[in-house]
Amino acid sequence: MTADSLTIGQFQIHGLRDGFFCLDGGAMFGVVPKTLWEKKYPADEHNRIRLGLNSILIRTEDNNVLVETGIGTHLDDKFNDLYSLDIQPGLVDSLNDAGLKREDIDYVINTHLHFDHCGGNTLINSQGEIVPTFPQAKYVVQKGEWEFACHPTPRDKPSYMEKYFRPLEGHKQLQLVEGDTQILEGVEVLLTPGHTAFHQCVKIESEGQVLFFLGDLVPTSGHVGLPYVMSYDLFPLETMQNKEKFYKLAIEEDWIMAFNHDPEFFFGKIKKKDDKYIFLP
Questions:
Q1: CA angle at 186 for the pair 184 and 187, rounded to the nearest 5°
Q2: Calpha distance 71→20 (Å, rounded)
Q3: Among 115, 120, 124, which residue's Cα sits nearest to residue 139?
Q4: Domains in the chain, please, with CATH?
Q5: How many angstroms separate the CA atoms of 11 and 206, rounded?
Q6: Average pLDDT, stretch 160-186?
Q7: Model pTM?
Q8: What span, in angstroms and rounded, lies between the C-alpha atoms of 175 and 38?
Q9: How far apart are CA 237 and CA 242, in angstroms?
């Protein structure tokens, strides 16, 4: 189902949910003690917390843009058990409920190429081939992220699954960008290093209103505080610097923020109270 929607100027924004998965709570919150983060995200017997696999659909007058594609469908039982996957309702079904088919998507933007952000980029067709899920779309990725994903370090290799992104190149649907880039009028990607060296966020602007898709810069509403940074981040200090940089703009210009992994909220705002940043649904 379409879990949430709003209007940004002339654009319609739909929150789509691929489903849910679980990650280690300690890794998700880094140096923040469990006694603090478990108040909002209680851990299971394996210390895992439940997270959303959220995407957004941007409908402009002429284009349909999908930001993130979830975790995908061609996964084995071992993987499903490890991450306690719950693929409900599924990205394509969510898209259908919003009134569109896979063939209607013109652009797919990946903030980065970790498996939980680009898993739905591809699917296995009836011939057993791995092909792009959205056959008419250009897939927008930072060039540096692409190069790192194709040649990851041993630390990062488990996060990059080539079946989710390599086929895009062969089907000539890959659009590599370098740094801040306007994808179409009102839709821009902004380089926000920290989680990875070439992580990008997405800024949607129409008629003076702004929606900012945070990706893994701020994965959930529970990560709004500056020190709430994941252990998965390669450059945590850069994450904190970019959070503060974009919080300042968001507060001054009254942006709406979109959260990639929040299990409850797609959208919200960030305000400052007593020198602390807080989330408002």
A1: 60
A2: 9
A3: 120
A4: 2-280 (3.60.15.10)
A5: 7
A6: 97
A7: 0.97
A8: 40
A9: 9
